[in-house]
Amino acid sequence: MDFNVKKIASGAGVFFTRAVQFTEEKLGQAEKTELDAHFENLMIRADCTKLWTEKIYRQTEVLLQPNPIDHTGARIEEFLYEKLDRKAPSRNTNAELLGHYMQDAAKEFGPGTPYGSTLMEVGECERRLGAAERDFLQTSAISFLTPLRNFLEGDWRTISKERRLLENLRLDLDSCKTRLKKAKAAEARSATAPDFQETRPRNYVLSASASALWSEEVEKAEHELRVAQTEFDRQAEVTRLLLEGISSTHVNHLRCLHEFVEAQAAYYKQCDFHMKELQKELSRLPNAFALSSTHPAAPASEGSPLETDTLKIEEVQAPATGTRKAKVLYDYDAADSSELSLLADELITVYTVPGMDSDWLIGERGNQKGKVPVTYLELLS
């Protein structure tokens, strides 16, 4: 118990001494030991690294998990599983959930209908996109987020702890310097011999005793200063080595950044592939927007414009009824002379001819005529 009281009292004394030194420095009443310029630059660089690493880490989390509510819930779940030393189960992404809903809706509407079959295909594509997204999230978390978090929660905490210890030792060192300076000044005053005519002989004894006491105080202050200087120099070297390690941190984060870019590029490449495959699949499905002929299909007779594989556009005539207006959704470049090039947002007249592929219509614009893809059009009533 006595030991604990002494330890607490000693700690309180040290804290008070540091507080006094800090206050006097702020008021300009005490000298402060300045670190060399290189050391100061290292600390500035470390602070800058911590600041921007934290910002990049937080914003990357937002990018990978944009919904704040989902993000908070995911972090809490990960924290609980981490404390239980268990692996968190993989969660479906929003795209995967959308894909499941679309496919369930397709089963309700009927997978044989145009809408149902399209929902089924789009739903499957969304599930593939969601799976690619989940792989991207996992890869990014391991290769990019984890190293940044390890720096903030590991290396930076160690650096901050050692810097705080260095600052405390600097306050102790400057406090010892101030104490030594005051002791020497008092010793000099006590060493001044009093005037024999104006001072009693008894004062000589008191003066000699005070001089001896101040000499002892000076020796004690010098010893404490040497000890404080040694501890400060040792801690400064430890802190310097940690700060110089920031260069290695930059190299490590650079490697992680390259891995993040590779993961992101692979993810977008997969998304592009799946979307192009989806477009191909949709072009093969029956399209409810396609116009059906108002006349029953008849076998091509001799001399019919569909007699050969290549449609003879110049011989095709618009029917008396069954033509409609259509708005062009996207630009389209004709692949050959039988097709009509399109410009987005323009209006054209369209119709079908017997025996024509359901994915195509005949489009007319002024005196120009040719085949146009149905998927590029919005049919107007």
TrEMBL record:
Pfam families: BAR, SH3_9. GO terms for biological process: apoptotic process; membrane organization. Its main location: Golgi. The keyword Zinc does not apply. It is found in: Golgi apparatus membrane; Mitochondrion outer membrane. Residues 159-186, 211-238 form a coiled coil. InterPro entries: AH/BAR_dom_sf, BAR_dom, Endophilin_SH3RF, SH3-like_dom_sf, SH3_domain, SH3GLB_SH3. GO terms for cellular component: Golgi membrane; mitochondrial outer membrane. Residues 24-291 form the BAR domain. Residues 321-381 form the SH3 domain. Keywords: Apoptosis, Coiled coil, Golgi apparatus, Membrane, Mitochondrion, Mitochondrion outer membrane, SH3 domain. It is a peripheral membrane protein. Belongs to the endophilin family. PANTHER family: ENDOPHILIN-B2 ISOFORM X1 (PTHR14167:SF106), SH3 DOMAIN-CONTAINING (PTHR14167). This is Endophilin-B1. It comes from Gymnodraco acuticeps. The gene is LOC117541194.
